[in-house]
Design brief:
It is a single chain. The chain is an alpha+beta fold and about 350 residues long. It is built from eleven helices and 15 strands. The strands form four sheets. Strands 11-10-15-14-13-12 form a six-stranded mixed beta sheet. A four-stranded antiparallel beta sheet has the order 4-7-6-5, with helices on one face. It is elongated.
């Protein structure tokens, strides 16, 4: 009998540990919040996209799962599902999570809260408000968001917050880069990420030479031929799935503190992952030599305030091949305000390399 009890107890303990281990979180901050609140038993394990409501001390909380079933979001609901669906934005989950943190005093570093300015109301008002009030949200001059909640024509709360990707993601740049690289390595990751942020599209990025314009021939086909290298590489980087669906990307990632990591992935995976996270591609020529054509792709995420910058080159002789190989150096999560500085540095390095060749 004693042995049977030990066996049953051991089996139950194993099941509990397995269930706990199966509960994955997007970042440490989310996991700490769940454990501090004691809600890990209420969060159901998932294998993919899932969104539902749980209750903690009488307070409804939204829980969302995503890639590999991990917990991507926990927060106090402030926006109706209909509004979130109609106007996708990184603001929603940021404010809901920070309101949760304020309500239960979950943040050790409270400086992040000072970036959000209340023009009316306060965090306590947001905690009590629920998600059925009328909301208006707008991007102001590309620098900040204005969010206002009203009820029967009366303003209940109004805030402004900067367009800062670390604030909006509630993650550090280091964590964001690590998460992005992990997604790049997983062939299935793109299917589990999909945020179609509403963003204003400019005809060009910073300068008229960097655009999202694609070149089409008289028959309506994408130009992709060695005889027209500039237009072909532009089409390759702006519409890879249509132009060269089997293209590979020989990618060198520039990470923190001078670290680098090399990956070989389908070009379509890079493109799909960036787009699924809300980025829009632009491309500009960087010049060419007798056998190589170079350019820069900017995956711009205006709603979150960052860009991925990809310096690319490919052999002219390979243009036109559906399985073309592209060499690239990637700089991830560059604040949009810092990209010009990166361009200037790369331009100077490029001039130095050409002088050395001469």
């Amino acid at each position: 009998m004693r042995n049977a009890f030990i066996i049953i107890f051991g089996a139950l303990l194993t099941i509990c540990r397995t269930a706990d281990a199966a509960l994955l979180f997007k970042n440490v901050r989310l996991e700490q919040a769940a454990r501090q609140l004691g809600i890990t038993d209420s969060i159901r394990p998932s294998t993919g996209d899932d969104c539902y409501t749980i209750v903690c001390d009488g307070q409804p909380l939204t829980v969302r799962h995503g890639w590999k079933g991990r917990v991507e979001h926990i927060g106090i609901p402030l926006f109706s599902p209909e509004y979130e669906s109609a106007y996708p934005s990184p603001v929603f989950e940021c404010l809901e999570f920070l309101t949760l943190c304020q309500r239960y005093d979950l943040l050790e570093n409270k400086l992040v809260m000072t970036d959000i300015k209340f023009l009316k109301g306060n965090w306590d008002v947001l905690c009590r408000m629920g998600n059925q009030k009328s909301v208006t949200m707008e991007m102001v001059k590309g620098k900040c968001y204005s969010v206002k909640w009203t009820d029967a024509g009366n303003t209940m709360a109004e805030i402004i917050m900067p367009i800062n990707y670390e604030l909006l993601a509630c993650m550090s740049r280091k964590q964001l880069v690590e998460d992005f690289v992990e997604h790049l390595k997983d062939p299935e990751s793109v299917h589990a990420v999909a945020v179609n942020y509403t963003q204003p599209l400019s005809p060009f990025y910073m300068i008229p030479a960097i655009t999202h314009s694609q070149s089409i021939d008289s028959l309506g086909n994408y130009i992709f031929d060695r005889s027209r290298p500039g237009e072909s590489q532009a089409n390759l980087m702006l519409a890879s799935c249509q132009v060269a669906p089997q293209a590979t990307l020989q990618l060198e990632l520039i990470l923190d503190k001078g670290k680098r990591e090399k990956l070989q992935i389908p070009l379509s995976r890079w493109d799909a992952l960036c787009r699924s996270l809300g980025c829009h591609p632009y491309y500009g020529p960087e010049g060419s030599e007798s056998d190589v054509v170079r350019g820069v792709q900017v995956m711009s995420n205006v709603p979150s305030g960052y860009d991925h910058v990809l310096y690319v080159e490919c052999a002219k002789g390979d243009l036109g091949r559906k399985d073309i190989s592209v060499k690239a150096t990637a700089y991830l999560y560059i604040p949009s305000s810092n990209v010009k500085e990166l361009f200037d540095t790369q331009k100077q390095q490029s001039k130095t390399r050409r002088k050395r060749k001469i």
